[in-house]
Amino acid sequence: MPKLNMVEAINLALREEMEKDDRIIILGEDVGREGGVFRVTDGLQAKFGEQRVVDTPLAETGIVGTAMGMALYGLRPVAEIQFDGFLYPCLDQITNHIGRIRNRSRGRFTCPLVIRVPYGGGIHAPEHHSESPEAILAHTPGIKVVIPSTPFEAKGLLVSSIRDPDPVIFLEPKRIYRAIREDVPEGDYTIPLGKARLVQEGKDVTAIAWGAMVREVLNAAEELKRDKIDLEVIDLRTISPMDVDAITTSVKKTGKAVIVHEAPRTCGLGAEIIALINEKAFLSLQAPIERVTGFDVPVPLLKSEHYYLPNPKRIVVAVKKVMSF
Amino acid sequence: MSLDLWSLYTLMLKSRLLEEAIARFWYDGLISGEMHLGTGEEAIIAGVVAHLRDGDAMALDHRGTSALLMRGVDPVLILRELLGYEDGLCGGRGGHMHLFSKEHLTASSGIVGAEGPTAVGFALSAQYLRPGAIATAFFGDGAMNQGMLMESINLASAWNLPVLFVCKDDGWAITTQSKQVTGGDLGERARGLGVPAVEVDGGDVSAVWEAAGRAIESARSGQGPTFLHARCVHFEGHFLGFQLIRMVRAPFREMPGITIPLTLSFLHSGGAALHERLEGLKAVLAAVLATLRDPRRDSANDPLRRARTTLQSDTARLEELEEQVEKELSNVLSTVLAGGPS
Ligand SMILES: Cc1ncc(C[n+]2csc(CCOP(=O)(O)OP(=O)(O)O)c2C)c(N)n1
Ligand SMILES: [Mg+2]
User: Which of A124, A128, A129, A139 is catalytic?
Assistant: First the structure.
């Protein structure tokens, strides 16, 4: 089985799905001839031609709006937005149009498209190139939001996203694009949307994370072992719809939770998860839930980036705080 | 005002030397993230900025360093900003794509196309608060396909605002050739929105200066916006370390890494059919030929070199000027570095 990094795994998923389904069309800035600024679509235009891997003008609203028209007509577009910050100009298309088709038509129409977006910090890039907009997207009705945390996960989740009848925003944690190599099988396998992954069982505290933060949590879990603290780690995988059962089952067991995300704290997804736990598992809670997050400012430049991003040290502190309540 | 090639050349040279220093900092790892420079577009910036005065505003794109410098921002502040220091132009928070100067009414954005609406807002305010003042927007050919920029050109036209839209057309948006994704002619597009369009050779600082002067005069006197379409060449490519440029600069050093494995695979016994391999080889040959013809290889396109050719008639003055500018820059650099991080 080939050992692939996340870029290669996503490329493989696209390649295999395009071979099977000729309605799949890739479009975006620099995705064709160049193969994408992160080389995720490398070689696909050469293989499938210019009609199926389309270099677009620099026009995000146009790209995403066009994808919607294509999806409604019967194609299966996979659009790429080059960096997280460039998603904001096309929120109109996503929020006002794409997310509403199913509801507006009482399910007679759906909008099967995928918008892939390299996202998140950790690569020393300036603002617009390091954002984590998942909470804004999760707040938008009618779209699914998927975030892989490893190469294997990325392939299985992307295939499901492409085959899903509804619009999916697929956020790719660019920081770990090439950081992890693991076995990624060729050929068909899928990972269902809306189902979290229990990465590691533990009895003391539930840690909930997604994307690049899963790795940080696992590193924290290693450190905590030395103090005999046993962390249960949940990778949400799909931010919307969220796997509420997985969260509550775990919290009912451990009675304690820490949520880790690199997006700003206020109205971040952590707040929503805490509210859900309050609703569903309040009587099991033994301590207030802690959040380890970014700060309420744009992602800073290199010099303060390490301070902004959650790391194992901050996670360990939060877990110990919860343990000693 | 009459054309003074000496002072225009001085502006361009200061900018070039500053950007060369920035490049050295970047290659030394002192500046984080990608770095877009304006190297190659100095004639456009100088030809426009030389006409600006107090109360005039600028909206800049991701290549804003040169315009700020030419407008009079202290290069020490610019450099310390890029280095991420607290006493930089924006407190070390903006970085090279987000340079601001309130004093010079200048804002930049890393969102391509955002310069248009900002400049329209500047111009509307100028019309109201300081009649006679104008706003400029600097952007690339790629930006011309952004909806927000089109909206802003229409706004400037409908409201007859004093804006100069400056399109620095290098033919590229990162790795996408604009001619392949752009409908119609950019000047025609502006005219279609009721804005007069002027074509100018962006490598010829005198020509830019003349054209910009007429457009700015017309804006100052209440006759509305102009679209200045200036072609240029970015010698550093999209950003520093751009692989296409490495290839362009040193094809004979960079090529073997690609051609040797390709040739070997061509001779390999197994694998793809012969005609497919021939196609592959042809594609690589085409890339090599295109690279050899790339205008970014040709220093004859360098606006500084072109201006210098004219000024060479007075070699003594030219040498003195260059020595002076170099000395200034080295003073700037020692101030920047002497300060240490903050
Ligand atoms: C809204 C938005 N989309 C994409 C990008 C990524 N990006 C940065 S520069 C650039 C190309 C810009 O081309 P052009 O406007 O011609 O300017 P040039 O770089 O050629 O000077 C792109 C796509 C961006 N910064 N903003
Ligand atoms: Mg360009």
Answer: A129
> pLDDT by residue (tens digit) across A41-88?
999 999 999 999 999 999 999 999 999 999 999 999 999 999 999 999
Percent of chain A at pLDDT > 70 equals: 100
pLDDT-based confidence at residue B10 (cuts at 50, 70, 90): very high
Mean pLDDT, all residues of chain A:
97
Q: Which atom of ligand 1 is nearest to the CA of B172?
A: 20
- CB-closest option in B95, B143, B148 to A301: B95
**B171 alpha carbon – ligand 1 mean position (Å):** 12
Same domain, yes or no: A11 and A123: yes
Closest Cα partner for A45 from A65, A28, A69? A28
Is there a domain that residue A192 lies in? no
**Which candidate in B111, B182, B279 is best for mutational testing of the A interface (most A CBs within 10 A)?**
B111
A139 among known catalytic residues: no
Which string of b and e fits A39-75 if b means at least 16 CB within 10 Å?
Answer: ebbbebbeebeeebbbbbbbbbbbbbbbbbebbbeeb
Distance CA A191, CA B91 (A): 46
Please tell me if residue B112 touches chain A, with a CB cutoff of 8 Å.
Answer: yes
Q: Residues lining ligand 1, CB < 6 A?
A: A 29, 58, 60, 82, 86, 89; B 62-63, 110-112, 139-143, 170, 172-174, 238
pLDDT by residue (tens digit) across B247-298? 767 777 777 776 777 677 777 777 677 777 777 777 777 777 777 777 777 7
The CA distance from B173 to the nearest CA of chain A, in Å, is 7
**Cβ-contact A110, A101 below 8 angstroms:** yes
Q: A122 and A10, same structural domain? A: yes
Structural domain harbouring A56 = 3-183
Average pLDDT over residues A176-203: 97
pLDDT tens for B59-105 read 999 999 999 999 999 999 999 999 989 999 999 888 899 999 999 99
- Point out the domain boundary residue: A183, A213, A235: A183
- Owner of token pair 């500084």: B304
Coil, helix or strand for A201?
Answer: coil
In a domain? residue A191: no
